[in-house]
Amino acid sequence: MLSKNFKNLLIGQKNYIKIISVCRNASNETAKNSDKYSQLNNLRQRPVYLDAQATSPVDPRVLDAMLPYMTNMYGNPHSRTHPYGWESEKAVEKAREEVAQLINADPKEIIFTSGATESNNIAVKGVARFYKDSKKHIITTQIEHKCVLDSCRALEMEGFKVTYLPVQTNGLIDLKELEKTIQPDTSLVSIMAVNNEIGVLQQIDDIGRLCRSKKVFFHTDAAQAIGKLPIDVEKSKIDLLSISGHKVYGPKGVGALYVRRKPRVRLEPIQSGGGQERGMRSGTVPTPLVVGLGAACRVAKEEMKYDEERIQKLSKRLIDKITSELTHVVVNGDPEHRYPGCVNISFAFVEGESLLMACKNIALSSGSACTSASLEPSYVLRAIGADDELAHSSIRFGISRFTTDEEIDFTAEQTIKHVKALREMSPLWEMVQEGIDLKSIKWTQH
Amino acid sequence: MLSRTKVLSLYKSMIKESNKFSSYNFREYAKKRIKHEFEANKQLNDQAKQAELIQKANANLNMIKRQVLVSQLYPTEKLIIE
């Protein structure tokens, strides 16, 4: 049995962070911001950017396509009476075609939105509400993005029944489990393509086939997959698909929703207004942003093979370097079914937040940007069965089209150095080195 | 048949122009990507295809020139590894 003091000493590193977090919570938002902003003022060199899942830089080819519509060509694409409107409309329709081509859809099936969050809201709430008289059941997974989970929560408040499917330890859903869960009154199955935290790619072909055979609509949040992996809505039998602009080197504030026409998917719009975008998304279509999304999709289609090979190579380089120098490291998620540009690694006996603070020369995150402010362990990692300790110590490395070999080497070097240093400070690590099995320790109750 | 010197000069202008990107990542990406494309098509004999690629490269050169200007208008601090 270990005494209270000794136990506290053992988890000192962790408590240190907790104390910081308490102090952080106690101070007000303004103080936190002024601290961040003063650090910004003293910024001499920028950290290397390895947070491609949070957002990607706008590709110069994309910005080049957008700039004319942010300067001299400012017409409203819905204006019918003059060339200002016509030229904008033409550009919007060209962009619609470019988005459609990337996923093998018809341009008429593409609805422009403000981003994947809005697309997911329209898809999940829209379909559920439209078919509510006959169907009251929705299926999703435990590792979806917050906007899908939160939309489902909202539907539960309205009286819908939602099943949150668990995932296996590799992050993939069990298809048999899905099949068993589908009921006669299930209207929608919403399962993301690539997970934003662990990069796991679900078997969307099989899910699509299953849903079609059961006559249930299949929605996939493909924000992290589009333009990086080949996606074909016909081949995968996808009925609704969400796209984000800023995850594919396009601008922020724009996205798209693919809505199948045959067999027709109907949905109740969320926003009321002028009936733009086939009545599914009212509001003036933002020409420059949409043009940017179109250009991003066109470039992604052209560059997919080159990008895939490069990112695969960089991903392997990073993982190999880290795993050859460090033990007690877990690469999260299925090694085969994944997008290689999202590398999520758990470092045992290291606090993730301490590691992030130590690696201040690399722009990294411990999970999704939406939850990066909280110290709570990631719900995605908990869903794949990682225990809290490992979920706490995980770091997501996001590799982009613009990441260089030098940046990967620098990142690996810094990570290895800081993990070693932090482990040196950890009494738990010392015990493991001495051959003590930590699971055999009986902590005293207080 | 396109003259070798003409293609080489286009390649050199593209690399030279890409070197002017103020962003490290855009600069390195552009150079690597251009090099890769020219090397991949070194043995290309189809004349129609050649002409198409040269036209595309010229359009890209103009795009790079414009985007280099934009990138130089809003420079930031250099990266830690530069």
TrEMBL record, chain A:
Cofactor field: pyridoxal 5'-phosphate
Q: Which residues form the Aminotransferase class V domain?
A: 48-409
Q: Where is the signal peptide?
A: none
GO CC annotation, single: mitochondrial [2Fe-2S] assembly complex
Q: Which enzyme class, named as a word?
A: transferase
This entry's Enzyme Commission designation comes to 2.8.1.7
**GO terms assigned for molecular function:** cysteine desulfurase activity; iron-sulfur cluster binding; metal ion binding; pyridoxal phosphate binding
The record's Gene Ontology biological-process terms are: [2Fe-2S] cluster assembly
Keyword set, alphabetical order: Iron, Iron-sulfur, Metal-binding, Pyridoxal phosphate, Transferase
Superkingdom of origin organism: Eukaryota
Q: Which family does it belong to?
A: Belongs to the class-V pyridoxal-phosphate-dependent aminotransferase family. NifS/IscS subfamily.
PANTHER family linked: CYSTEINE DESULFURASE, CYSTEINE DESULFURYLASE FAMILY MEMBER
**The protein's name in its UniProt record:** cysteine desulfurase
Q: Please name the source species.
A: Brachionus calyciflorus
Q: What is the lineage of its organism?
A: Eukaryota, Metazoa, Spiralia, Gnathifera, Rotifera
Automatic annotation (TrEMBL), chain B:
Please give the superkingdom of this protein's source. Eukaryota
Q: Where is the Complex 1 LYR protein domain?
A: 6-63
Q: Which InterPro entries match?
A: Complex1_LYR_dom, Complex1_LYR_LYRM4, ISC_assembly_LYR
GO CC annotations on file: L-cysteine desulfurase complex; mitochondrion
A Pfam match is Complex1_LYR
Offer one example of a GO biological process linked to this entry: iron-sulfur cluster assembly
Q: Which CDD domains match?
A: Complex1_LYR_LYRM4
Q: Which PANTHER family does this one have?
A: LYR MOTIF-CONTAINING PROTEIN 4, PROTEIN C6ORF149
Family indicated by similarity: Belongs to the complex I LYR family.
- The protein depicted here goes by the name Complex 1 LYR protein domain-containing protein
Species assigned in the record:
Brachionus calyciflorus
Taxonomic lineage of the native organism? Eukaryota, Metazoa, Spiralia, Gnathifera, Rotifera
